[in-house]
Amino acid sequence: MSGANSCFGDVMVVGGGISGIQAALDLATTGYKVYMVEKAPAIGGKMAQLDKTFPTNDCSMCIESPKFIECDRHPNVEILTYTEIDRVEGKAGDFTVTVARKPRYVDEEVCTGCTTCAEYCPVRVPDPFNQGLSDSKAIHIYFSQAVPLVPYIDGACVYLTDEKCSICEGVCKNKAIDLHKGAKKEEIKVGAIVLAPGFSPFDPRPRGDYGYGSIENVVTSLDFERLLCATGPHEGEILRPSDKEHPRKIAWIHCVGSRQVLEGGHSYCSSVCCSYIQKQVILAKDHDAGTEATIFHNDVRSHGKDFERFYQRAAQLPGVRFIRSYVSIGREIPSTKNVTIRYATADEGVKEEEFDLVVLGIGLGPPVDGPRLAGQFGIELDLHGFCKTDPANPLETTRPGVFASGAFLGPMDIPESVATASGAGALASALLKYRRGKLARERIYPPERDVSKEEVRVGVFACHCGANIGRVVDIPSLVEYASTLGHVAHAEEGLFICSTDAAEQISSTIKEKGLNRVVVAACTPRTHEPLFRDTLREGGINQYFFDMANIREHCSWVHSKQKEEATAKARDIVRMSVARAARLKPLREFELPVTKAALVVGGGLAGMTSALSIANQGFEVALVEKDSDLGGMARRVHRTLDGMDVQATVHDLVRKVYKHSSIRVFH
User: Fold this and answer.
1) Phi, then psi, of 6 in degrees rounded to 5
2) Which residue, 591, 589, 579, 626, is CA-closest to 607?
3) How confident is the model over 450-460, as a mean pLDDT?
4) Which domains are delineated in the chain?
5) Mean pLDDT over residues 427-450, rounded?
């Protein structure tokens, strides 16, 4: 291992899942230099492995992929993948973190992501991203939208084990592969740290009572997510592991590894399992309306906004049964590889039933490397292994200057993980307000091309969105149709137009083909329009020469059973978008003065905490409360279930609010 080099930043975010990404983007956007450390070969975490998210059933990657690209493009975010923490020294405001960068044997700066190396590689290994349900080459890109979009070499590589082969090194035209490259250490000096290492899914193998690992057609819920996903082992088809046939009768088992006081289980509720199982039932029925779905549960805990409606939506589908019973896996039938489940109901007693596929709803455990991280960062863990925090300050660890977010705090869903990330980022920002902007850089774009004297040349880029669109809309015929429209100079399709390589392809195509208008036929502009406007700027044309044709919500989702009609409608929408794009004029943005003050309406615990957070970051705050006293509903509560003195917390916050020179209170 080579010697350590020194780098300087403001904040280090440990973990590159959705929570770490959100914290990094919040901090980078507000003027801090951020180092994001991720131990996997690419950022994205567990959310990148999901097909959809509850309760809206939005495409997981459609939400997360634009954030990947934003991180990758942001001048104030430095992404360190395949990297782990080695040592932490110092105190709040002055930490020195030594990171160990594992060798991926591929130079990220030189590699173009062409994947020629993977084509020639003779070694196949289980694909960790697909939960081992399929194989990948020993050198491969982690997943299709990965950031960085650079291969890494698995430890099973023949050259690394026996010094044989090295074909990949020979076929790489850019000489990006170095099989002799070793690990190296770097020292990074930062003022604050946000820990977002995520969670570890419960592993049912050691217990053995569910047959996972020994019975082929017993899979975990995370395995099932990969079966559902268009980038999964079977391109979005739900197939049994044993014979690659469509299962017609599927059972889901709740609380595998959760709410169990048995050895090897977790006593707590993992909070997300009920809803993600309901989501999987809905998606399985969407894939095949004839699927029979049986959900075995202790009880259903669908807490959260619209979660009860989501449960009712699943329960009311034809062929869906919710059975309240503990179960045991009976046996595997040798001739069919079907699985029997024994269960009991109050009306019918003990029964045994046969299923084509069994899905284990596994719980969320603390990260496997949590104890190691706790020792390195000098923080405490709770009795379950999650990060220990003060109930009144649930994002602050036991070490000043080190904050936590996401599922490292305990089991939580994606929206809550994102919310805690923003909260942790705000605490780090308040700690380091004196150095905001000192290390930050502005993004530099290429000069904007004057197209006023050019003929209109429209580029149309149509997205399969995995299978969200491509399963319903005939994308190849749509692209062929678009190429016949007036003003269209180029039309092409892509599996994920929002991926890093696709965005770069659009930018380069704008330059190569001389395009001066762009139409993207994909999903919603609510999440993706800013990404594509930024892509136009990278291509050197005005960002307002862009139009988006929403063929997901307007076609594939609402006409999922009418493929021909959906495709015809998509043609109409693209034709209208092209006509609109041809008439677009360049717009100019200009800066307006901003009043650097905030209004907080409501003086309860949330309002006071928000006011203090903003004020601690250096801004004026006006806090408005309709009652004569601050505190809100918390004034009526004395203690929480875990013994927290609520009145003491309220009085402390009230004191801090009135004492803060940047907060004015209006009753």
Assistant:
1) -110, 135
2) 626
3) 95
4) 1-102+183-199+366-442 (3.50.50.60), 103-181 (3.30.70), 200-365 (3.50.50.60), 458-582 (3.40.50), 597-666 (3.50.50.60)
5) 93
